[in-house]
Specification:
By secondary structure, the chain is of the alpha/beta class. The protein contains seven helices and 19 strands. It has helices spanning 48-69, 207-216, 223-230, 254-276, 336-343, 350-360, 420-423, and strands at 15-18, 27-31, 74-75, 87-96, 127-131, 136-140, 154-161, 167-174, 191-195, 232-238, 281-284, 314-316, 321-325, 328-333, 390-396, 400-405, 411-418, 425-430, 436-440. Keywords: DNA replication, Nucleus.
Length: 448
């Protein structure tokens, strides 16, 4: 890691000017994820404080949007809502779902721990409840996208209270993140490689991963491929670099047990060493990786990367991960947020869920209800304060992308990054144009 000799750009805090390896273009990189650090924090708070911080932080911006949308309509608290009076109310949603699993279920006499978990927990009789600082009320009406919404979303609704105490919704308003800065004009094409789900150590044929590494370091493909790979300024591994390792049987000897646990780490170390010796590499923890389970996941411990952890170009980062390259801001997760939203909504399009997460202005609305997270008491770091240029989620079933328009003509590129072990696909994002395209490694025909 060194200063670029030809760069006259003033670097802000946490920015680093990366000089590419021989034949590889350089870039200006900034890690923007300091808010996800848990250093000095303790798991001693109640989760109610996190919901309160979410409501307090989102309310000012959402209230302003609601006033602009419903100019002549009065704002009310839930306690002050009157029957038949048109008004709008702001609060946090709770989705009542009979099928939602409960931690007390295991104490039920009929509980079967081996029962297969359903793909979704939704049902026709699910309903939404809104809660503010003083009370709660049930929301009804076709204007409310009940099947799409999940617990934890802060929303403003317009309507009237009806007989029985329910609130008949006639319109809704979500918090739109603030505008992002425009991408500084860059004359040359540079790329960020997004990949996830390497599943190193799953005992399957590692040929796909070997080819991927050789491609990324510029040792594979035609002259065109090598020129393209030389323009990859950074590689981001969005979680699940390691496969899930079953706990070794106690019947195995101590040496065999140790081997079962350490062999995947040794294999991962080889791949990371090869990559980080040639191209800057960010590695995010995921659901399967040896890191804390609750979000935000902290960077992998250096010992998990072996000798590769000593390389300057290996960057162990948080999940979620927020960074910028040459002024283009990236925000992404290892996919747990989209997986959880998928389970608790009727929506089957994961790209749509990623879009809704941006529309709601929150990366992980279902945490801490159905997705574990740290009990913050002074902030909610998962709030999306400004629209990133690229918003991605790793470890998804398939690749998809979409350019969505934010307010006043700005746009965000949404990307679902598929599991590499399952699809053999890596995504290249052009930081100049924000366009992206997949590259797939198919080894099925080899040896056939």
């Amino acid at each position: 890691m060194s200063s670029h000799p030809k760069s006259h750009m003033l670097l802000e805090r946490n920015q680093t000017c990366m000089e590419g390896a021989e034949g590889r273009v350089g870039h200006v990189y900034a890690d923007l994820g300091e808010r996800f650090s848990l250093k000095g924090r303790r798991h001693t708070n109640q989760y109610a404080q996190l919901y309160f911080q979410r409501l307090m932080n989102v309310s000012p911006g959402l209230s302003e949007l609601a006033r602009q949308k419903w100019k002549t309509v009065k704002k009310s608290t839930i306690l002050d809502v009157q029957i038949g009076q048109d008004c709008w109310v702001l609060g946090t949603l709770y989705k009542h779902m009979k099928k939602k699993p409960c931690v007390l279920d295991e104490y039920n006499i009929d509980f079967d721990p081996d029962q297969e978990k359903p793909e979704k927990y939704t049902a026709e009789d699910d309903y939404l409840i809104m809660e503010d600082e003083g009370a709660r009320m049930k929301l009804i009406g076709d204007a409310l996208p009940k099947s799409l919404l999940v617990t934890g979303v802060v929303i403003a609704v317009r309507g009237k209270e009806v007989e029985g105490g329910d609130f008949q919704v006639s319109d809704v308003c979500f918090r739109t993140p603030q505008l992002h800065q425009t991408v500084p004009e860059v004359m040359e094409d540079k790329y960020v490689a997004l990949l996830s789900g390497l599943d190193v150590g799953d005992a399957k044929d590692p040929l796909k991963t070997l080819l991927l590494v050789q491609y990324l370091i510029g040792s594979l493909g035609s002259e065109y491929d090598q020129v393209l790979s030389s323009k990859i300024t950074r590689v981001v591994v969005a979680g699940n670099a390691m496969a899930y390792v079953e706990p070794p049987s106690l019947k195995l000897g101590e040496k065999q047990q140790k081997s079962r646990l350490t062999e995947p780490l040794k294999e991962l170390e080889v791949y990371l060493s090869q990559l980080a010796a040639t191209v800057p590499l960010d590695i995010m923890p995921g659901m399967q990786d040896p890191a804390n389970l609750s979000l935000p996941q902290q960077p992998l411990h250096a010992c998990m990367c072996g000798e590769a952890g000593k390389l300057d170009m290996l960057n162990r980062v948080h999940n979620p991960h927020n960074f910028s390259i040459d002024g283009a801001e990236f925000l992404g997760t290892s996919g747990q947020n989209i997986d959880d939203m998928y389970r608790f909504s009727s929506e089957t399009d994961r790209l749509k869920l990623l879009e809704m997460s941006l529309t709601w202005g929150h990366m992980v609305p279902t945490a801490p209800d159905t997705l574990p997270c740290f009990p913050f008491s002074d902030k909610d770091p998962f709030i999306i304060q400004s629209c990133p240029h690229v918003y991605f989620a790793g470890n998804q079933p398939q690749y998809s992308q979409k350019l969505v328009q934010c307010s006043e003509g700005t746009s965000t590129r949404l990307i679902t990054v598929p599991s590499f072990a399952q699809t053999g696909t890596v995504v290249l994002v052009n930081t100049r144009t924000l366009k992206c395209h997949p590259i797939t490694f198919d080894v099925s025909a080899i040896g056939a």
